[in-house]
Amino acid sequence: MSLGEKIFEYRNAAGKTQQEIADELGVSMQSVSQWENGQSQPDVFRLVPLAKALETTVGRLLEENKVPKEQNRHRLFNEEHMYTFAKTAARERKLYQTAKALPYAREKHKEQKRKGEQKDVPYINHPLTMVCQALSMELNDDDMLSALILHDVVEDTCTRLEELPVNENTRELVRLMTKDPEPKDKAAAKKAYYEELAKNPKAALIKCFDRVNNLSNMALGFTRDKMAEYVEETEKYIVPLFKVIKNNAPEYSNASWLLSYQMYSLLETYKRLL
Predict the structure, then answer these.
(1) How distant, in Å, are the alpha carbons of 57, 143, 144, 163, 165 from that of 100?
(2) pLDDT by residue (tens digit) across 219-270?
(3) Considering 187, 195, 210, 224, which has the largest number of Cβ atoms within 10 A of its Cβ?
């Protein structure tokens, strides 16, 4: 039974109309209809309120009579399609660093997967989703976009910073994004890490892209305690970065506003559910 079929069955069992479900979730009736018909799927942050509205659990919606993996929401964005989109945009917009970063990151991350329920998803899905989002916002800063693609390469693939096939500006952004894997004092290291990011508005924006993407998917890979910790860290360290961007890089104001809207929406949803 597909996810859409389950939504239909649980809704009827609860004696509710599509409009009633839509009103409880704050979406359109057309969205609920499309979920049931398999034309689209609810965003991950809607799964808990959706299960509540259907008087069931997320587990019953996703785990019992499992939905085929290719139908899961986190695979709606195909890696090959995103790679082609980013590669084409890099060529058309003359983003030379980005064009070099794309195949390099794909090769470096080729054996890696996402965590939790996304363990079937290639890790490259994460940076590709972010760079496609940035490109769709009409961001054309080559250094920032290439760093967005490479932001986890040094930290996660045992690659040295000087090996990255990009210029020094991009390498510096990647350096700022890279955390010390074994800090002596974790709290002090975290504080120092975010203080360094706050000195560079491009790095701050990259971190905001990264955090929004991770927040969108953390219900698929984090425990409840880990999610609560992540929300707290986001409010303490990431949210202030939007002020850094606003005050120092007005050219990114549109992207910053869109990301902040996404982030605040996700945070408020998680805070009510945790």
Answers:
(1) 45, 11, 13, 12, 7
(2) 777 888 889 999 999 999 999 999 999 999 999 999 999 999 999 999 999 9
(3) 210
Residue 195: active-site member? no
155 has catalytic annotation: yes
Its domain, for residue 117, covers 77-167
pLDDT tens digits, one per residue of 145-173: 999 999 999 999 989 999 999 999 999 99
For residue 172, is it within any domain? Answer: no
Q: Which of 9, 24, 156, 172 is catalytic?
A: 156
Which of 39, 74, 109 represents a domain boundary (last residue)?
Answer: 74
Kindly report the CATH number assigned to the domain that includes residue 22.
1.10.260.40
pLDDT at position 255, please? 95
Tell which of 74, 104, 130 closes a domain: 74
> Cα–Cα distance between 9 and 6 in angstroms, integer?
5
DSSP structural state of residue 122:
B
**Catalytic member of 43, 117, 155, 172:** 155
> What's the token pair of residue 41?
């799927």
Q: What is the pTM of this model?
A: 0.73
